[in-house]
Amino acid sequence: MVFQKANAQQILIHERHFGESGRNPGQFRLPRHICALPDGNLCISDTVNQRLQVVTPEGEFVYSIGKAGAGPGELRGPSGVTCEGGFIYVVEGGNHRVQKLALADGAAAGRAGSHGSKKNGELWCPHGVAMSKGQVFVADYINGRVVVFDCSNMEHVRSFGARGSEPGQLEYPCGIAIKGEEVYVAEYGNHRISVFTKRGNFERTIGSEGKAPGQFFQPRGLLFVRGWLMVTEAKRVSVLSPPDGEVRQTIDLPNAGQLWGACKDESRAYVTDIRAGQAKVFVLNIVGTQFDEGSGNSAAAANAAAAKAAEAAAKLKEWKEARANQSKKDVHVEVS
After folding, report:
1. DSSP element (H, E) containing 111
2. Residue 86 pLDDT more than 50?
C-alpha cells in the first residue's frame, strides 16, 4: 500500500535497483548501511563478506576496503558508514568499535571503542553512525545509547540515553541522523524515533508501534532528504515532516525483503535490502521540493505559533498589571 498526503507533491519515486547476492566484487551479503562519497560513488558495508565496497551510482564495482579480522584496517561485521574529509568512519558490530580509514587506500587512521557497557566509550554491537561538526555519533545497539567521539583523535566525548522504553531511553537504537542541533535515533525495539539535542538532552518521540501511516514496526534507517525525514522499515519507506513527524508519503518498494540503511546524493536516495539471497540497493528519485520549516503546515509549527502567542499575551498581561499597580502606588503617594 502506498500513502500520499492529499494534494501534496511526492518527495520520492522508485526508479530501479542494482546489485545481487554473492561473494564476488559488486555482489553483497547483508549490505546493511550505505553512504555517499565526495566523488559521487557509494560506499556499502558488505557485512557478511567483511568488507566495504565502493560502487558507482549505477552499481558498478570500483574497489573494496578491508578484510576479515580484528587488527587495524580489518573488519568484523561492518555496519554503519559515513565519510568526511577523505576518511571513512565504519562501525563494526563484531569488533565493537568504530574505525577511521583513509578513503584512498583503506589505511587505518584511528579507532575507538571496545566491548563493554560500563566505561566511557565502550560499545556493544554498535550499528548506525552519523557525522556532525567534527564529531561522530554512534548508535550503541545493545547498550541502548548514543556514543559520541571526536573525529580528530577518536577520543570519547559523551554518551547519552539508556536502555529501556521510557521517554529518553532507547531499545536497540539502529539508524541515526542529524539535522541542525538535533539527533534523530531509530529505535528498532521501541518502534519509534527518539529525538535528542547534540548534548544529549531528550526532546520528544515520533511515532508508535503499528503499520498505519505515521506508525513504525522496527524502523532501522534514517535520512534527511531536502529537509524531509526519511525512515526505512522492512518493506516500506516513509517520508515525514520534521519536527513533529507528520506523514507526507509512504512507499512500498517492489519485492522488498528487509530494507535497512539509506543515503542520498544530489538527485537520488539509496536504500539497502539485506534479505538473504536477494541483496540489492533500491534507487529512488528525489522529486520533491525543499521542506519549508516556516510554512506552518505542520502541527508542530502551529503549536509553536500558539505557544509564542500565549507567551506574548502573558507578558502583555503582566506588563498591564504592573502598570496598574504602579499607578495605584503613585496615587497613594500623592494622597499621603
Report:
1. strand 108-112
2. yes
